[in-house]
Structures are given as C-alpha cells and as structure tokens.
Amino acid sequence: MKLPKEIVQFFEKSHAVIVSTLNEKGAIHCSVKGLVGVGKKDKLFLTDLYLYRTFCNLKKNPTISVTALDEHAFKGYVLQGKAKIIPKSEIKKEILDQWEARVVQRITKRVQRSVSIGAKSKKHFEAHLPIDPKYLIEVKIDNIIDLSPPTRKTKIKSCSKQAKS
After folding, report:
1. CATH number at residue 123
2. Which has the closest alpha carbon to 147: 81, 73, 47?
3. Which residues constitute the domain of residue 92?
4. pTM (whole model) above 0.85
5. Could you give the CA distance from residue 3 to residue 10 in angstroms, rounded to a whole number?
6. Per-residue pLDDT, 163
7. Number of domains the chain is built from
8. Three-state SS at 2
9. Across the chain, what does the average pLDDT equal?
10. Does 86 map to a domain?
11. In this structure, is residue 36 part of a structural domain?
12. Read out DSSP for 77-133?
C-alpha cells in the first residue's frame, strides 16, 4: 500500500508518535516513540531508546499501530501493520543522522516556543534521555485509519471494512 502524500507529510511533521503493541496476554501496551521518517511506499521508521516492553512485545507479536495527532488542526491518523526489529548494529548511518537532526529540531522548536511565551524551565528533559536508539522499528503499513471527525475527514479510505473510528 502506497501512503498518500498527505499522510506522509502529516507524519513527517510529528516528532513523536504513540505506538501500540500487544503483550503475551493480548493486552494493549502504548508508548511514545520517536519518528525517524516515512519510507517509500508503505514503511514507517521509529526509534526506541530502551529495550523494554515494546521490544519484548514486538519480538513475540509484530502487530503494531502508530498514532499521530495534531490537536490544533483537529486531525489524526492511525497506521496499522507489522513491525520488523532492526538491531542497533544494522541501523544505517543516514538513519542515525536523520534521528539526530529530528531531535535537534524538536529541542529547538520547544525552546523557541518557550521563549516566545515567556515560559521558564530549569529542566532540560532531553538531557536525561539516552542519545542513541537501542533498535529501529520498521513498520510495514497495511491499514490507515483517519481519526478526524466526519467534517474534517479526507478521502483516504481505510483498507479494512471495519475500520471506522
């Protein structure tokens, strides 16, 4: 499935996304992951800074959904598919460079926004995060769900007949 240009652009603007996986009991686990980018056709690339629940879940069950929202535009999408774990040793340098650039961009925007509204912060949250991802999550997308209310929906159709939110 080729991703529509509108969705590629929407996800490219997202710095972080909500990733949902299934644990061994079938319960849903949600976590925040960094978006590296959208590949050609039907792939999304995410970083994980930890080797914890998401990693364990994906090793046992590759089913994944990735959610991005823009509360100001009142839009959002869920991309559903299958994940592939790419070990740290196999992550290409250009992917790591993309990730670093996205982190710097996110920090810069947050600082600019804080300065423009006069907010002060003594904490730099990013300083406490690991620098390099522990692994890369490659998501092959099978289904798209438009989370927008009916008046904001695009003409993107879900691949599954059941997927109306």
Report:
1. 2.30.110.10
2. 73
3. 5-146
4. no
5. 11
6. 45
7. 1
8. coil
9. 84
10. yes
11. yes
12. EEEEEEEEEEEGGG--HHHHHHHHHHHHHHHHHHHHHHHHHT---S--GGGGS-SS-
